[in-house]
Amino acid sequence: MFYYSRRLNFLLSNIYRFFILFIIFRLAFVLLFVSNKTTDFNDLLYGIWIGIRFDLRFACFILIPIMIAFLIPVYNPLRQSSLRFLTQMYLKVSTLIIIFLYAFDLGNYAYLKQRIDISSIKLLENPLIAFGMAWESYPMPFILLAFLIIVYFIWRQINKTLILLNDRPRIFNFGHNVIGFVTSGIIFIFAIWGTFGQYRLLWSDAHFSDDPFIVASAINPILYLNETSSFALEDFNENKTRSNYDLMVKELSIDKPNSKDLSFSRLKIKNELITQPNIVVIFLESVGFNRMSRSGNPLNSTPNLDELSKHSIFFNRFYIPMVGTARSVFGLITGIHDVASVETASSNPRIVNQYSSINALKNYEKYYIMGGSASWRNVRSLLKNNIPDIKIMEQDQMDYPRLDIWGISDNNLFKVAHKTFERMNTSNPFFAIVQTASNHRPYSISEEVEGFNLINVESSILSNAGFDSEEQFNSMRMLDHAVGEFILSAKSSTYFDNTFFLFFGDHGTSDPRAMHMPKSDFDLKLRSYQVPFFIYSPGLIKNGSIRSDVSQLVDILPTINGLAGNNYENRTMGRDLLNDEIPIDPLALIINKKMANQHIAVIGKNHYLSMSKDGNQIQLHELWSNEPLVDVKQKYPEITSSYAARLEGIYETAKYMLYHNQK
């Protein structure tokens, strides 16, 4: 019969083996990451069904080069032993790469709650850091052993199928040939098309649900990686920027607009202070607003941060535009939203040259203090290229042991910062950014921290409070403890009374729903974007207060210059939160990659408006509703129109300014 054809038998056997391998990985993904609290079972089954068809498509794609080779007369793997060897090597190398990418995908999802795309590959730019973090975060010996076993098993199966090519050829009649051709053709066409309908299976079919996990369950990660590899670094559109210029003049309160040169500059004249204050910015790694007890979190994981914030100017509606520590570094230093779509702006040589009004701190000694290496994500270049007199202090200069891949512990990092500030020349003020890192996978905690003990909490209680694990919970507590010890030491120093301490979270994390937060915190994934920000200075701020107007990361730099009493040129996308007039309805930009359908958005006092980057698929959501995913744009047409126009203006201007904000 036709199925004795060596060609068909070889091709179908390998397609079948790859197909089964991909299904196993898909089921492993679902079992590892499924959450019964957030996932509809019927939708999950449908998502898996879509994914299986993608898997079959990919299995067929792998064999296409060999199919073509079989069609060549005489010089094909059936007749040439050298070509059979090349076929064997092609399949084995493909297997090795595919299994590596699947393993990378599982780790990437465990880390970021996203399947791999072209931006994920950027994590491998420094393979030593990537492998080091993986080794310290996951059971790598077991994973490597499983990897080798799977590779070995698949390679043995490939060897078995190659034996088929050595069989003696059989003679088939015309009917058998037709049946074989039609049968294999139907299988192949269905695999490539993915459906018997008029339209082929597309990636949009995977996005049938609003649940990101269900969408992730419907994706073949390697096909998805290939799809996103065609995404270019998204450049600006000058025409769109010009068409939105008048709107942005109002949005940014530009007093002397220049539409010809597309100038976004505004000169800020301040009353010069007799004594300029010190300014210390504390960069809180992976601290979302929902972690703090002030948000209603019942686990008291941040007692020190909560106590400090009570005596501070506390901003309870503060947002970062995009998840990623490097992106928050860039936004803090430049005051421009890092909206680069594939790579972080700091890693793009076309973008790294930027004006920073940190340079307006003329009389200040400037420091950037971090426990790891400033080579990470090109931070060193971003700082030294744009702030020439800043002194970078990093792990190699600190007499403390390395805790994990991210450097020394935060507890020791704050000791370095405190000793540095104490040694300052009191005739000049200082500006410093202290970047913490320990509250991050692998959640390492030093055993030598005095006054700190691990706490055991039931998994259900942790989950309801928005924590993914006990390790994550205790890591948050450890960062809070380190902050408390730092401030306690600072209070006995000469610099404390004349210092503003600005605390902010660089981003939140994708964890279980925090039941104490509004539903929109989880449903709209705002947990990743809303972070704490407060300004603490008992010597300079007499009473604590709460600010509930929407504010954002790019507001920090103008606020710093306002605190310093500087005359400066504001070329940021932000406002001085303490001195500039509060807009009637301030908005914060969000590039939401955590939703099933990724989009750009703005968040205001009561509403969240999202749309695709091309301006389509506009939706408006009520933040305080019990059903925040419901689109209410028909109910509020004026808000929808206003927010959509402002979102386009803000987004297009941010893209343009990344390339037009040079020193």
Lay out the secondary structure:
Layout: H1 6-33, H2 41-70, H3 81-112, H4 118-121, H5 127-137, H6 140-163, H7 174-193, H8 212-217, H9 221-228, H10 238-243, H11 245-251, E1 266-268, E2 278-284, H12 303-310, E3 312-315, E4 318-319, H13 325-334, E5 365-370, H14 379-386, E6 390-393, H15 410-422, E7 430-435, H16 459-464, H17 470-491, E8 499-505, H18 519-523, E9 533-536, E10 545-547, E11 551-552, H19 556-564, E12 568-570, E13 588-592, E14 599-603, E15 607-611, E16 619-622, H20 637-659
Parallel strand pairs: 2-7, 2-8, 3-10, 4-11, 5-6, 5-7
Antiparallel strand pairs: 1-12, 3-9, 8-9, 13-14, 14-15, 15-16
Write a structural description.
- With 663 residues, the protein is of the alpha/beta class.
- The protein folds into two domains: 2-228, no CATH class; 238-659, Alkaline Phosphatase, subunit A.
- It is built from 20 helices and 16 strands.
- The strands form four sheets. Strands 6-5-7-2-8-9-3-10 form an eight-stranded mixed beta sheet, sandwiched between helices.
- Helix 2 packs across helix 7 (174-193).
- The termini are far apart.
Strand sequence of the main sheet, in spatial order? 6-5-7-2-8-9-3-10
As a percent range, the share of helical residues equals 40-55%
Count of discrete domains: 2
Q: Tell me, rounded to a whole number, the average pLDDT.
A: 89
Radius of gyration (Å):
28 Å
**CATH superfamily of the largest domain, called what?**
Alkaline Phosphatase, subunit A
Task: Tell me the total number of β-strands.
Answer: 16
The biggest sheet, with number of strands, parallel, antiparallel or mixed sense and barrel status, is: 8 strands, mixed
- CATH topology title of the largest domain: Alkaline Phosphatase, subunit A
Through-space gap between termini? 75 Å
Structural class: alpha/beta
Q: Strand share of the residues?
A: 5-15%
Second rung of CATH, namely the architecture of the largest domain: 3-Layer(aba) Sandwich
Segments where pLDDT lies below 50 for 5+ residues?
A: none
How many H/I helices? Answer: 20
Q: Based on CA inertia axes, which overall geometry fits?
A: globular
